[in-house]
Amino acid sequence: MKTAGLTDFGRTRSNNEDTFLIDDTLLIVADGMGGAAAGEIASSLAVEVISGYMKKISYSSDKNITQHMEMAILKADSEIKKQSVEKPDLSGMGTTIMASLHLDNRLLIGYVGDSRAYIISPPKKNTSTAIPSVTKYDTNAETAVFKKLDDSQKLPSGKAKEGIRRVTSDHSVVMDLVNSGVIGEEEIRTHPLRNRITRCVGNLTGPGPDFVWHDISVNDTLILCSDGLWEMIYEDLILAIVNSSSNLEEICKRLIDAANNAGGADNITVIAAQFDKI
Length: 278
Prior knowledge:
Strand order of the largest sheet: 1-14-13-7-10-9
CATH superfamily: PPM-type phosphatase domain
Mean pLDDT: 88
Largest sheet: 6 strands, antiparallel
Number of domains: 1
Number of helices: 6
Strand content: 15-25%
Number of strands: 14
Low-confidence stretches: 137-141, 147-158
Order of helices and strands: EEEHHEEEEEEEHEEEHHHE
CATH topology: Phosphatase 2c, domain 1
CATH architecture: 4-Layer Sandwich
CATH class: Alpha Beta
Radius of gyration: 18 Å
Helix content: 25-40%
């Protein structure tokens, strides 16, 4: 597995609350929230706790390693809550988590919040890699945690387009509205409640992390990103940039440049991984 990662302040933020980690087969993106320095502390603390806990595991079964990742994320949740109580200026801080673990020809992805994971398959012959135009979005609203519309509602797996598949389902008010048929997925980026998430590490009181096992093929590309990327650019542009770039570092830089060119309304973080052999 080859990897690269990059993070950027964006065009409107004075600090970066995102944190990412590339540690052998473990990849993590965390998008912190809480104001002042609290978001930065929450995201970095979560990445530190999860990565430290995941070092202690050896593969025995799918169930065992999924439970271990769940415990790692819940341990991070507890640690953030503890810090919030002990330090009043950090009260209310939290973070999204998008964690991926590469095991043979599969990925285990565990997540909380609205950071995303995409799998991009190599382009077929005669497939155009032209870069589509970028639409600019107004995404100035601060992220907040809302109660889910219906905690019993089962979220469907990610929506797929030819060549790119979102393998996670956002824990957000707008995704709940999509799943209940109130709005279409194309409205997610412009809806007034677009930055309201329903779960975050540091504020888990009901449902915890969700997990996805995903089969991978040779030359598939994995993209993990914060909402600062996907809220600014559509999947068609992500796909075109991945397929027209010469290496993973270029993919990360061009994706961040595209998000900034569309407005850069939030911090932007991208990890790209490619599986040249399984």
